[in-house]
Amino acid sequence: SYAICLSGVSLMTATTTEKKKVFVETFGCQMNKSDSEHMLGLLDEIGYEPTPDIKGADLMILNTCAIREGAEDKVYSYLGAWRGYKEARPGSLIAVGGCVAQDAGEAMRKRAPYVDLVFGTHNLHRLPELVMKASSGEPVVEIYQELPEDLPETPVHRLNDISAWVSIIYGCDYNCTYCIVPYVRGREKSRSPQSIFEEVKSLAESGYKEVTLLGQNVTAYGHDLEPKLHLGDLLRQLAVPELEAIKRLRFVTGHPRDLNVEIIDAVRDLPQACEYFHIPIQAGDERTLRRMARGYNVDFYRRKVDEIRSRIPDAAITTDLIVGFPGESEEEFMNTVRLVEEICFDVANTAAYSPRQHTPSANWDGQVPEAEKYERLRYLNTVVGDVSHRLNKRLLGRKVEILVEGRSDRGMNRLMGRTRTNKIVNFEGPDALIGQLVDVEVTAANPWALRGALKVGLTV
Ligand code: SAH
Ligand code: SF4
Ligand code: F3S
Fold first, then answer.
1. Residues 6+ apart with CB under 8 A from 299
2. Total-model pTM
3. Which of 5, 135, 140, 249 is least enclosed, having the fewest CB within 10 Å?
4. Would you say 292 and 178 are in contact if contact means Cβ atoms under 8 Å apart?
């Protein structure tokens, strides 16, 4: 082991002088963003450091999303441009990972033969080896069909030093008839609570203030563990004095069916757990929900919202909605619009239905014409915006606690932070506040963000 150690040292000194540069572009959900940080961590071990400058990169990685056709098309248009960078910098490599790569595999190199490496969502940990192989000049395509049983812990190079993502469950066991995620992310697999605890502990020790627990279906956490566990238990295990440096715990994204009272009670009881519930409903129409195979009806969802609001009156509830699902009538679409007004979502992410390969609904009759889908989307967005605006205006004059994340891109002297309910607040203040929890008074509200003023007499 002494010899290994020595060679490790010489490797280190050799690479600190001339580290190779890696540029990563990430599309898609937070899971993908987190995966990108793990790619950087893994590549660090073979002497790559991240660069924001693609033209000076020795390795360009595109971490792709397949959720809608638009996201997939973007992959090939980016790659077209990257080809030029590769030609301008001989010896540089293009790698493609993520959900489109997982699905396309070899086909990706057929469409973009200048790609040097294609890897999937289940073999991230193999990246160093795959990059070294590709560096020797031979194109590499490696896709695993499932996550390996004995998945190793992978190193991580985080791009944010205040708020960190921690994956707790991979994959999705649902089969919503529109969704490609189960196909590209595989079956649910929960991480052990011990390894999650260790990761959060190291984050606490490195000065992180906020941890977001990640998964496509975090509310299902632990059902596959022995002994069984649920997200409420995990939150309680993480809200302990040993981890008190972590001031905020969040989790995304959940499924209404698995959101039980124990989870809601944990959020209510634990000061660290933020009063923020992202629970995608997808549609407010019974027939559409049934055909989407979501496994609940509108009333079930209403009861979930009541359970949250009766226990935690100030909780934010956010959602995802799809318009123009095959066969959706104008009247059925209006049921979704009415539901938005009824529930009053703090935020609703909306999307026009996009037919995806490997999903049943892609081949159904009654596909809604593009123009009609976009008309519905436009209309729904105005309603969603009005509702968000109304809710945000309720906060005017109120004091909110925010975690300051950095400079705002809104203006020179502004800082940006988030409330516990995940609302963005821009306010004037000194850089010294970055990374701190501060109280601000809400002075203005628009549908997407708040303006605030620092409360005077505050100690930094
Ligand atoms: N696991 C989460 C969502 C994951 S995908 C859940 O069950 O709700 C993120 C969002 O993308 C979904 O909530 C859905 O609104 C949207 N989406 C998924 N497939 C889509 C498709 N084919 N067309 C349009 N939007 C889609
Ligand atoms: Fe997709 Fe449904 Fe799974 Fe969410 S629960 S990732 S929408 S299949
Ligand atoms: Fe996209 Fe894959 Fe996430 S399809 S939304 S990046 S799980």
1. none
2. 0.94
3. 5
4. yes
> What phi and psi, each to the nearest 5 degrees, are found at residue 459?
-100, 135
- Residue 413, Cβ neighbours under 10 Å: how many? 11
pLDDT at 163: 98
Q: Is 133 helix (H, G, I), strand (E, B) or coil?
A: helix
* pLDDT of res. 413: 78
* Cα torsion angle, 37, 42, 44, 50, sign: negative
441 Cβ inside 6 Å of ligand 1: no
Rounded Cα–Cα distance for residues 60 and 76 (Å): 14
8 Å CB contact between 100 and 111: no
Residue 5 burial (C-beta neighbours within 10 Å; 0-12, 13-18, 19+): exposed
User: Which of 174, 184, 188 should be mutated for ligand 2, with most atoms under 8 A from CB?
Assistant: 174
177 prior amide bond cis, ω within 30:
no
- Work out the burial of residue 271: count CB atoms within 10 Å of its CB; fewer than 13 is exposed, 13-18 middle, 19 or more buried: exposed
C-alpha angle with apex 171: 165 to 177, nearest 5 degrees? 125
DSSP conformational letter for 245: T
Q: What are phi and psi of 201, to 5 degrees?
A: -60, -45
Which residues of 31-144 form beta strands (DSSP E)?
Answer: 48-50, 59-64, 93-97, 117-119, 140-142
**Residue tagged 């109280």 (tokens):** 439
* pLDDT value of residue 7: 41
Cα 235 from chain centre? 19
Q: Which residue has the tokens 């572009």?
A: 25
Question: Can you read off the two tokens belonging to residue 187?
Answer: 């079956």
Predicted pLDDT of residue 14: 47
Q: Which two tokens stand for residue 365?
A: 């009759």
Q: Is the CB of 171 under 6 A from ligand 2?
A: no
pLDDT in tens, 306-361: 999 999 999 999 999 999 999 999 999 999 999 999 999 999 999 999 999 999 99
Helix locations, 227-319, DSSP H: 231-238, 261-269, 286-292, 298-311
Distance (Å, whole) CA 65 – CA 97: 9
- Residue that is written with structure tokens 């490797």 in the block: 11
Q: Is the CB of 384 under 6 A from ligand 3?
A: no
Cα 281 to averaged position of ligand 2 atoms, centre (Å): 11
Cβ–Cβ < 8 Å for 256, 304:
yes
Ranges under pLDDT 70 in the chain: 1-17, 410-411, 456-460
